[in-house]
Amino acid sequence: MSVGAAAKCGVHIFGIRHLSPAGAIHLIEFLNETKPQLVLVEGPSDATKLISQITLSGVKPPIAILAYTEQLPIRTVVFPLAEYSPEYQAFHWAAAHGAEARFIDLPSDVSVSLHASRRAAVRVEKENAREFYQQSNERYKKVAALAGEPDYDTYWERHFEHMTSYNAYRNAIHAFSHEMRQLSESEERMHTPLESAHNEIREAYMRTRIAEAIASGVSADRIVVVTGAYHASALQADHALMTKSEEASLPSVPTKLTLMPYSYYKLSTHSGYGAGNLAPSYFELAWQCAKDRDTEKLPSLYLASIAGHMRASGNFRSAASVIEAVRLAESLASLHGGRLPTLQDLHDAAITCLGYGELSNVADALARTDIGTAIGSLPEGVSQTPIQDDLNRNLKLLKLEKYKTTVATDLELDLRENRRVKSEEAAFLDLRRSFFLERLQLLAISFAQKRAVRQDGATWAEIWVLRWTPEAEIEVVESIMKGETIELAAAFFIKESLSQCKNTLQAAELVKAAWHCGLPSSMEDARQMLQELAIDAGDYAQVARTLRELSLLVQFGDVRKMDTAILVPLLEQLFLRGTLLLVDSAACSDDAAVEMSSAIIDMHAVAQQHYDVVDDVRWITQLEELAYRDDRNAKLSGLAFALLLERSLIDNERLAREVSRRLSPGIPADIGAGWFEGLSLRNRYVLLSRRQLWEQLNHYTASLDDEQFRRSLVFLRRALAAFEPREKNAIAELLGDVWGFGALESADALQRPLTGEEQQKLEELNEFDFGDL
Amino acid sequence: MDKKQTILRQPAELLYAHELEALKAHDKAEKPAGWQLSPRSVLNFIIGGQAGEVAITPKYIGHTRLVEIAIATLLTDRALLLIGEPGTAKSWLSENLTAAIHGDSSKVIQGTAGTSEEQVRYSWNYAMLLANGPTEEALVKSPIYRAMEAGGISRFEEISRCASEVQDALISILSEKTISVPELGKDVPAERGFSIIATANTRDRGVNDMSAALKRRFNIVVLPAPSDLETEVSIVRKRVSEIAANYRLGEAVPEEEAIRKVVTIFRELRGGMTLDGKEKLKQPSGAISTAEAISLLINSMALASSFGDGLVAEEDLAAGLLGAVVKDEAKDDSVWKEYLENVMKKRGAEWRGLYRACRELSS
Prior knowledge:
- By secondary structure, chain A is of the alpha/beta class.
- Chain A has 5 domains: 3-262, no CATH class; 277-370, no CATH class; 386-486, no CATH class; 501-650, Alpha Horseshoe (Serine Threonine Protein Phosphatase 5, Tetratricopeptide repeat); 655-773, no CATH class.
- Chain A has 37 helices and 10 strands.
- The radius of gyration of chain A is 37 Å and the shape is elongated.
- Chain A starts with a helix and ends in a 7-residue tail after the last helix.
- Chain B is an alpha/beta fold.
- In chain B, helix 12 packs across helix 14 (290-307) and helix 15 (314-325) crosses helix 17 (349-362).
- Chain B is globular and about 75 Å long.
- The chains are: A alpha/beta, B alpha/beta.
- Chain B: Pfam families: AAA_5 (PF07728).
């Protein structure tokens, strides 16, 4: 028989709504009745090879078929299946009855690329499309309103999910979809031509696959086609098939397919299409009841499980209340002429009888019962990418399997050797876990998130938050582009980033990343890159921050059992570079001085930490030069002076001389007060203990004319803002003493509450705009 | 004059007698035991619709689903408890439900701090009790007692105002569905159709908590304030014109514009925010309900007809507004003044007159 002739023969078409328990149960009955030899299912035709794996005994839904492109940018298409998906049940029926099952929709190569181009074009026709979707939504709402139901989902549940006979279900859904399609088809063609064209292409492709199957010798009445109800009429009708050349001209990008575990939470967030989506866990209960031929049980089961959740969280609800809730739900259903309560009826009954009228009392239990935390699983080796296998292997090896749940769990790690266990493997279990989790984090796989820990001077404790989501699974699959295992992928990622790395700081961060991930060879690569970049490094601030990163690595290197001594020569070399850059770089604007000052402080800390390695003497000399130069940024000179003062390299007499030189009358305010600001960045106690300094400051400010005084206020205010209240009090006392009020009296005055007049004066000052200066 | 016309306030079953007749005549569906209408028709009576030629006016606007839950509750012979802030139409709904289901909304217990257990169960005519001892004739039956005998619905208003022990007298009535009279040595079992609709305030002074045991015996429906401006305006308009007709206040019902202004002010102060959500407001200490907006407008109409030219002027509204918002002189006064200056003053020309009138009164 030719393909064209075959198309004329009628096959059995069973329209469904995806994720519909009633659809699943009626489909099974229909299959039992018609006993087909071939079951054709709407879904990517290249995924047919996965069907045999979907029906394996170790597979626990929800799962999803994931198609992903191998080239950048990575695009994915997900096809989720729950236990109550009619498609899923169709596969099981076929497997159990020796029938063949096949997918017949566009292969993922094509659908991924069509999807992408459609998305790009949607922006253009957005306005039209929005209007069309609104209209079509209105239409569904109107159907619900005419039936006296609050929303379309409830309408659907009461009028389709609750149907008992499969023939009635099949006919009703066909008729309903056909009518709805008739109403919207021409408008769709006008307002969203792409969407409409996409449907045409898919339907032509599916018709061709059906015709091919018939042509291959299977008699038409032994074929059952399972498809979304919307397509049912188009697949039956005598429409054109797709020619070979048309098929070849479809756009396509190479994709790969895999199965992945899915979660009910994820299913529930993709609302809008398919019945069970908003409350997957509820629909699973419905499926269980339907399978046991006991749909009347569902209200009791559902409401009892809500009461169970409430009891578990400490709110006791009696069985009597559950009974009343079931009765209320049933009488609400009867008010609408329904046989069974819908989810909406059950919700309202739960709120009224179990929540004492308040949604907030039952909201948590409702979410748990509607959505649940169920997550699917696949047996090892089932159609996974090597990187997924590697991940599972690692989770097992590192005893992390129990963290693979949708509930976020904390994991505390102690990286030090555990001396109570025998094998070395066990002794460093936490360290190896940390390496593994760091690699995941580097690859942006959202399973592991590191939480910041405040810990003084040690890095052996880490807290991780672990939470498994289907997104994480997708991210793992996407990482296959980078390598076959997690370790290889992480190394590849570092290598790739190194090639794009522009300055020493970025390179140092990659050294650190490699160190965190326990990848010695990557660390060596990064070190080399850092060394190359260091040759040309001329930005002081960047050098200083790089130094700080290196210093930490050298200091704490052995916590992670990694040899960081290789970094020491680099540290030495860069330190020298920094030292030499210091005085020149210090000729900068006040804005740049902010970054510079923290860089100087960083570098000083490195000098003290690694005094045995770096050239500390030269550093001090450079600081001294900066401190006494008048042509550098005054704030930085002040800071250099403060650092020297801190290391007791300046005696009292020199201090007095320098202060009076810097703060002598006639020095412009931004230089004098700026210097003081730099000075006060460090060791304030030393400053507070020197009365002479404050006398000098007082003398200096008094000598300024009005304009200069105003300018100096900006610097002084900034300098003093960093002091603690206690220290500010001490300054006030000191100044009081200088002005001859006596320290005690001024302290006393400070403690008195403000009078209204003073309050007002201070408030006026608050409005003083420093921005003008 | 017809007797019906002289009654100050007609019960729902008289006020809407023609609607109930029409519904009865067109009701084809099955009626539960003891009900005069089918549940569908009861719903129709409350939310409005059509019965043959007769238009059924909506009695409760905005929350159809809550009415469905209330009717379904009574179908399962459970007692119904309506909870809500003052003025959310709890009593109104309970009266109309009772009228629709049984045609008699008069079996009411009004809960107060002084309500005693006898008023809930039964008491005695003491003269007869002393003369003849305990006899049927000496028994004074409570509304609940009578409802049980007749298989009707008894209403218990403001149940949370009663002392806890009085509230708890209901527990045995609701679980056993009998009242025993040991003095006469008899038990009175409830006829089919018996139920209780109770109402309770959440936010008011002098309210006692309800025990968990009693709460468990009720299905509880919380009545919210109207969900949006349009709903509230239509509720207020409908009730104002009904009451005005009843009280024979001769003048025209206030214009929609005035009603809209009052409802806007009430909604903003109740929500603590301007309707556009841009400005936060202080809230007054008392609840300002839809019911109060209705009585305010009726009041202004009375003022206008007695002392004015018969048309509701801004001054008439202003007096009512001040009284409704400022219940606690010390606190609410500043709330109202701030509202006047910060919100109303900036609203433009249509609000100018009302603003002036309000400011004159509160300065």
